[in-house]
Amino acid sequence: MRVAIVGATGAVGHELLKVLEGSSLRFDELLLFASPRSAGSTLMFRNQPLTVQATPDGAIDADVILASAGGSISKALAPAWVAGGAVVIDNSSAFRYDPEVPLVVPEVNGDAALTHRGIIANPNCTTAIAVVAVAPIHRQYGVKRMIVSTYQATSGAGAKGMDELLEQTRVELDGGQAQASVFAHPIPFNVIPHIDAFQDNGYTKEEMKVAWETRKIIGDDSLQISCTAVRIPTLRTHSEAITLELERPANPQAVRDLLAASAGVEVRDDPAGKLYPMPLTASGKYDVEVGRIRESLVFPGGIDLFVSGDQLLKGAALNAVQIAEYLQQKGALKARQRA
Ligand code: A2P
């Protein structure tokens, strides 16, 4: 079994290497690809240096390709990877809305992965984190409407996003004036309600991704969703304030118990003990932290909650590896015969 990472040198690629180190996925060989700029550099995997190769224009001789080099690379090359016999687990948005491409969070709709025709899409990070908490509530109580406000880390824009926060913070502390490059405005000591491009309806693409993708993963087109996505000056982990209107009334303790028994969730909810989800505690964690669970003041029987999830992990690398593990557990991942 041969696994390849395309975009191995990036923020998500770095996490893919770490997650694969501890993964139950059985494979014999790992191939690393990035842009020609990184060709010949090495990255450590299980105490061995592996050489990064320039991504070829055509097929890659691997059984599973974890793609994390952006939408244009995936769009251009994934068809050739599939034609070459690989299963592609794609982190970009290139194929997420294709009805023939499953969009998968294993805790929520793992079975959808088994229907793939070569490509499986990994959701947008904000969506992946939200659905881990919301799907169990939807199954039990039926979510009618969902209102989300996000607090998104700079690593959502890749390694260069984190670099911009660190460098520009230093500039500001030294009395200089930060110049935005990755973000629309200086990010140090600021919050920016603008992630991805504005659409005709006034929402950004990031906000619409949360609506489209949550419906597809949960499998309910009637779900009404509105999102405001905001970039904040943290390095990693996205947080989200979520309000749910429910078909059947819930009480906070029942929701706490339900989520405590749900896969991929850590309930962290003791306000008196100052215990709630935060990037500080959720970073590096596989589970999504959920807390501040309370009855909505607006929707009787509805629920307000707060989540923090490491978006480089559950929102990207971890979820991608979990999809591969799921396929292997189900006997749906086959190594090709090689000479
Ligand atoms: P490189 O480091 O050589 O530029 P991030 O999301 O953190 O910005 O990372 C993007 C990833 O995608 C990096 O591994 C980057 O490699 C890779 N990448 C960027 N452009 C290309 C390209 N044209 N072909 C293959 N990989 C690319």
UniProtKB/TrEMBL annotation:
Family: Belongs to the aspartate-semialdehyde dehydrogenase family.
Protein species of origin: Deinococcus rufus
Segments traversing the membrane: none
Record text on subunit structure and interactions: Homodimer.
Active-site positions on this chain: C125, H238
UniProt-annotated binding residues for substrate: Q152, R231
Gene: asd
Residue span, Semialdehyde dehydrogenase NAD-binding domain: 2-116
Record's catalysed reaction(s): L-aspartate 4-semialdehyde + phosphate + NADP(+) = 4-phospho-L-aspartate + NADPH + H(+)
Binding positions (phosphate): R96
Binding residue positions for NADP(+): T9, G10, A11, V12, R37, S38, S155, G156, Q311
Protein's recorded name: Aspartate-semialdehyde dehydrogenase
Biological role stated in the UniProt entry: Catalyzes the NADPH-dependent formation of L-aspartate-semialdehyde (L-ASA) by the reductive dephosphorylation of L-aspartyl-4-phosphate.
GO molecular function: aspartate-semialdehyde dehydrogenase activity
